[in-house]
Amino acid sequence: MMSILKSWRLLPTLLGMAQLMTIAAMADAAEPPPNIVILFADDLGYGDLGCYGHPSIRTPNLDRMAAEGLRFTDFYAAESVCTPSRAALLTGRLPVRSGMCSDRRRVLFPDSAGGLPANEITMAEALKSAGYVTACIGKWHLGHLPGHLPTRHGFDEYFGLPYSNDMDRTTAAPQGRAAFLNPRDAYWNVPLLRNDQILERPARQEHLTRRYTEEALEFIRRHKSRPFFLYFPHTFPHVPLFASDRFKGRSARGLYGDAVEELDWSVGQVLAALRREGVAERTLVFFTSDNGPWLTQSEQGGSAGLLHEGKGSTWEGGMREPAIAWWPGRIGPGRVTSELGSTLDLFATSLKLAGAAVPEDRVIDGVDLSPLLFGTGPSPRDTMFFYRGTRLYAVRHGSFKAHWITQSAYGPDAPQEHNPPLLYHLGHDPSERFNVADRHPEILDSIVAIVRRHQAGLISAPTQLESLIGSSP
Ligand code: MG
Question: N or C: which end of the chain has fewer CB within 10 A?
Fold first, then answer.
């Protein structure tokens, strides 16, 4: 009798515990969405990191990031030059849909009047409306006039260069590429901005990687208690190459290696800060590059490893990039995937993780890579379109890639059309050397059908890259 009474008297306590457990489960379900950090190199090649086989550039931090996370072998930038590539990353859309590409001027320049159209929805805007605090630290290159700066595209904070570090060349610079062999700040009158204000001009380029990194660490420290989005597009290893005193002259690969090794240091600093501030287990960090190596810069340009061609080209070397995803406790360590992914996918992936709605009033070309990241399923991406400006040059589907048009990255050669297209099996032949079109007519047919479907619904926006300051558009 006593024991029953005792049990009855315990019941409210048990109910209380059950309630507490329910509340705990609810709190768990309502756990804040993860922080998103995108570390974006400029002109870094597929072969330029230790974990991608470079023999003389030391990248211990990126190698460790790969060992702790997921490394991609077949990840693509959305375009082969800066401006369209960045527009695609931030909007999840092919540049041809936003107008952020051109056949005449492939990127924005200091005399450009245009920029990312205000009606595009950036990752920063979408994440901000889901409660994130947002920062862009580094090179923007999506319009440098006040109406086009990051602060107009959803970024609460901005610190960096508005375009490439080789622009605004001064009369102090030696002719041609000689300026890159022994670069000096005075050769380029590039401004360093904080939000909408010029902080310094010309920017002290040898300090940029260190200062960007300090800004990033400070942003993480200030906002560790709420979800944040840090978009960190580095200035280097785009030419002219600079490194701080700690790194200059230290790499066995020369100045290019110095710049990459400092970038690697920066990655290590960011990951260490996330750990130190106790947020590593709720942060997705993604590292990749905007386009392949600038091969015409000779020793000042990077390497695409075994891939053909580089920056500016729709061959693999122009767009296939090193890519590493890192999230301790969520992304299993030491994984390597050969499934497809693209910078186009970071938009949908981030919005999904943030619980933000992916826009339905426009075509989004990216897919949510979560199944691939977390090892729960295959990549939803099986096709990659290779545009040069407004024209579709090549398409990859599965292991095969068909080229309708080929053209060297730079130089006077006209585009060369192929009918039937060239066909390469990228598994057997990652260097795209052996055309197997005559052996696989059925593969060509299936890729042709994919192209027809893609082009049938395609609406190209007017280009934003050709209007000049002071002239009517
Ligand atoms: Mg670039």
Answer: N
